[in-house]
């Protein structure tokens, strides 16, 4: 006689995409303005993840954010800066299951700012991202 009951659980689970509804952030004012889902939520996640400095904010885990801002204005060679930015941005985004890949980077350092453009292949389609850091 077994100590645990013999229970058969029907397999009815499907790989369905979970909603990604979240608060809509206004990056200019810092205010929350409603809710976003789908493509807009992923675009917001990407922007927020790459502008949030990793390891600084205790509200986030060490997996969230990007170290790019720590490199700006430190006198690194442009070639080194570009390769590290590609790696850092990719690492900041790829852990999210909604992001399949990040590629086609165009990085242009300009003094204390860096213009970054890249493509993100997501579950909601291909997104073209532009950001000034």
Automatic annotation (TrEMBL):
It holds the Pfam family Sheath_initiator. This is DUF2634 domain-containing protein. It comes from the Bacteria. It comes from Pelosinus baikalensis. InterPro entries: Sheath_initiator.
